[in-house]
Amino acid sequence: MYFYIYDSFLKEKKYAKVVSKIETRLASLGIAGKKHQLSILRSVDEMVKEILKKESPTIIVIGSDQTFCQAALPMANTNAVLGFIPTQPNSLMANLLGLPVNEYACDVVSARRIERINFGKINGQRFFSSLEFDVNKAELIADNKYQIISKRIKTVKVINLDLLQFQTTSLETDWKRLASNPKDEYLEVLMGTPGKIFWFLKRKEKKDSLFFVKKLKVKSKKSNQEILIKVDREKTVKTPVLIEATKEDLRVIVGKERLI
Amino acid sequence: MLGRDLKLKPEDAETIIGTGVKVEGTFTAFGDVIVKGQLTGSLSTENNLSLRSSGKVEANIRAKNASIGGELKGNLTVDEKIELAATAKVSGDIHCRVLAIEEGAVLNGRCKVGGAGPKDTLKEKKKEDKVEEK
User: Fold this and answer.
1) Which CATH number fits domain A2-112: 3.40.50.10330, 3.40.50.1000, 3.30.70.360, 3.40.50.720?
2) Which residues of B touch A (CB under 8 A)?
3) The CATH number of domain A122-246, selected from 3.10.290.10, 3.40.50.300, 2.60.200.40, 3.40.640.10
4) Contacts A211 to B, Cβ<8 Å
5) Angle at the Cα of A160 (from A62 to A162), degrees rounded to 5?
6) Low-confidence ranges of chain A (pLDDT < 50)
7) pTM of the model
8) Can you tell me the ipTM of this complex?
């Protein structure tokens, strides 16, 4: 059975037309299902856990990347399938999973091409996409075997499912590949300096190093300092942390044009 | 389509130790390794190693093939071929099946080139050890 989780912003009037088009397309494809609307009072986590009580559900998130990533977390190692209908034109997840935007994604959902995607963990808590932090004050130990010491690098991005670049939108072809492999039980550690725009001056991002690790310990060089790690572009976790690749996975509906 | 072609398994992944990074310890990889920065300790990969002109390595290296253009202090054991570029500075022993040295390369150490190569030599040693045990 299909369960649709509508992002909270879709309640706004300006999205009425988009929602209506999606619903019409879903109905014509014969995959209409139960609608769940997110609000301040109902979190994605609660809602997904409630749906998971039903037998092998297909949960489709309609809305933003953040909500999609949040919905994925409680679904690890279940029989459920997760799908996504992105409504934002610059959706990173849509790009990675090969999904068109708005009602056009309904056809991909209907085709049910499924891939298994692993999770990463930070201090025992799952994450789906990537982590990002400032490396200047950090000490990194990979797989308990070697230390990575940064000399001129600003940022580290630990990737489970994301582009191998700091920017979320444009794709550059100078790197050997574009996206991480979230099915290999490894995490990609990308080190470099993200691009920036100061008024009308633009600094291009610089990718310096790429490592493949199963475990990464991150702590501050000074014991009285803490480093903030951004998890899935949303919440933050403070150091010291242990970041791990896991075998826990999730079945996700993907499109033909996927990058993973 | 582009992304699908670039899909990579960890075995053929390309680890890059960039110029802004120094690695210390036992570094083991499955895929190709490119070193542009610094590394101390030991390095082993089941695939190819490329030490670029900006790279400085103080480690014993084990790889399938190696192309050296930077500075290496340590022994280099390679199953197949070693290429020393004109910019290479190697201080250590070399063991491989095929060795190619470009004019200008510096090599201070003993060379054991040709024959079965280190991979097969190791296998033979293991076999001999087993026979002795029996």
Assistant:
1) 3.40.50.10330
2) 1-4, 6-10, 13-31, 37, 41
3) 2.60.200.40
4) 15, 17
5) 60
6) none
7) 0.87
8) 0.85
